[in-house]
Specification:
This protein is an alpha/beta fold and 226 residues long. The protein has seven helices and ten strands. The chain has a six-stranded mixed beta sheet with strand order 6-7-8-3-9-10, with helices on both faces. Strands 2-1-4-5 form a four-stranded antiparallel beta sheet, with helices on one face. The structure holds adenosine-5'-triphosphate (ATP). The site of adenosine-5'-triphosphate has 12 residues, from strand 2 and helix 1. This is ABC transporter ATP-binding protein.
Length: 226
């Protein structure tokens, strides 16, 4: 089983039946192989966040199947879906959402403690992740004491803390300068290559998208090759 994610016939309409109805996704078919890093490009408002939220089990489709690690998630109850999300998916957002009162290290340790990992193992894994993206020297700094690029690299480490199968990123380098965005992305590719992680990364940055394994475009509610 080499598919990390498969979406079949996904449809989503906000406010159905009302004058404000927005038909955002009109039959999305998409497969991500294990270890693949795929870019999703689309104009603003095309539905990238909606698609990522559905793929990451934060939202449910009106129709269609979301298959993660071989299981159809649309058939699960809320509790099983929450557990699957916690165990299988990591999210990175445009603005990192790190916890401001905790250090970089603690931000990467806490999700692991919530997952039941012993503190010593969690700290060792967190340090290893921070090291891989070059922020280990800042491990004991709080987010406000880090640069934007460092914060975003910590956010990637946090998303990867529980070793998810699938990383979903919504404009993860959107607020970074081109050099920093390149560095963050290179670190992600390295991590992906060494752990078999699959990633779907929404971005407006076409140069960055071109460096990924594949580029998909979201157009009129459907996914097509770019
Ligand atoms: N909760 C909601 N209720 C109603 N409409 C919504 C809701 N969420 C999103 N939409 C609409 O759905 C469309 C797609 O939104 P979405 O956030 O998925 O787009 P996006 O491609 O991620 O945009 P951006 O690149 O600007 O972040 C937009 O037209 C938006 O106005």
């Amino acid at each position: 089983m080499n598919e990390a994610l498969a979406l079949h016939g996904i449809r989503k309409t906000y406010n159905p039946g009302k004058p404000t109805a927005v038909e955002v996704l009109r039959g999305i078919d998409l497969t991500l192989q294990t270890g693949e890093v795929v870019a999703l490009v689309a104009p603003s408002g095309a539905g990238k966040s909606t698609l990522l939220h559905i793929a990451g089990l934060l939202d449910t489709p009106d129709e269609g199947q979301v298959i993660l690690a071989g299981t159809d998630m649309t058939r699960l109850g809320d509790r099983a879906r929450t557990i699957a999300r916690r165990d299988l998916v990591g999210f990175v957002y445009q603005f990192h959402h790190l916890l401001p009162e905790f250090t970089a290290l603690e931000n990467v340790v806490l999700p692991q403690l919530a997952h039941g990992t012993p503190r010593r193992d969690a700290e060792s894994r967190a340090m290893d992740l921070l090291d891989r993206v070059g922020v280990r020297p800042r491990a004991h700094h709080r987010p406000a004491q880090l640069s934007g690029g460092e914060q975003q690299r910590v956010a990637f480490c946090r998303a990867l803390a529980n070793a998810p199968r699938l990383l979903l990123a919504d404009e993860p380098t959107g607020n970074l300068d081109p050099d920093t965005s390149d560095r963050v992305f290179a670190a992600l590719m390295d991590l992906g290559r060494s752990t078999g992680l699959s990633a779907l990364i929404a971005t407006h940055n076409l140069a960055l998208a071109a460096r990924m394994d594949r580029v998909l475009r979201l157009d009129a509610g459907r996914v097509v090759p770019a």
